[in-house]
Amino acid sequence: MPTLATRTTTRTATRTATRTATPDDAPFLAALHAAGRAREVAAFGWDERTADAFLAQQHTARERAYATSYPGADDRVLTVDNTPVGRVLVHRTFGALHVVDLAVLPAHQGRGLGTAVLRGLLDEAAAAGATVRLSVRADNRARRLYERLGFVALDETGVDVPMEARP
Predict the structure, then answer these.
(1) What is the residue-wise DSSP string for 74-96?
(2) Concatenated DSSP letters for 22-79?
(3) Which residues, in sequence order, are CB contacts of 33 under 8 Å at separation 6+?
């Protein structure tokens, strides 16, 4: 998944791409995780220091779980004009692509970046005759995007909804 797209607006051209995540991306990935959970954690009423410590601990635990559960997963940083704005973590197995994590900074959401990533993965899966799987919080607005792209819910009983798209 090298270059996703180049978009030209009336003011500027925007180059979106992906690159392999490196250990140097750890601070960005932690900040991305924190940005994605900011509203949820703010509702706890904690002071900033406590919230930051909680988010850091959660991020570290999540990264360890990903490394253990999805060895060899393709970890990519999404960029806009060479600036990191998101992440996609994909675990490929025979017959399936599992989107383990897809996150975009709030300031860059709603601009088609997630759509472009998912369309690329859906095209890859279709060429291989594979299924694309992911999971989303039941109340996450990204679910509408997934449904528009052909994902269907497999189970509606939990907080997280497993979804898949078949070729």
Answers:
(1) EEEEEEETTEEEEEEEEEEETTE
(2) -GGGHHHHHHHHHHHHHHHHHTTT--HHHHHHHHHHHHHHHHHHHHHHSTT-EEEEEE
(3) 55, 58, 59, 62, 103
Q: Which CATH number fits domain 3-21+72-165: 3.40.50.300, 3.30.70.20, 3.20.20.80, 3.40.630.30?
A: 3.40.630.30
Single-letter code of the amino acid located at 135: S
Token pair of 1 as six digits? 């998944």
Question: Which of the four pLDDT bands, split at 50, 70 and 90, describes residue 167?
Answer: confident
Under 8 Å between Cβ of 98 and 130? no
pLDDT of residue 143: 94
Half-sphere exposure of 20 (CA within 13 A, CB side): 5
85 vs 16: CA distance, rounded Å: 10
pTM of the entire predicted model:
0.89
For the stretch 23-39, pLDDT in tens is 999 999 999 999 999 88
Tokens coding 28:
């960005």
Q: Are the C-beta atoms of residues 149 and 165 closer than 8 Å to each other? A: yes
Q: In DSSP terms, which residues pair with 136 in a beta bridge?
A: 161
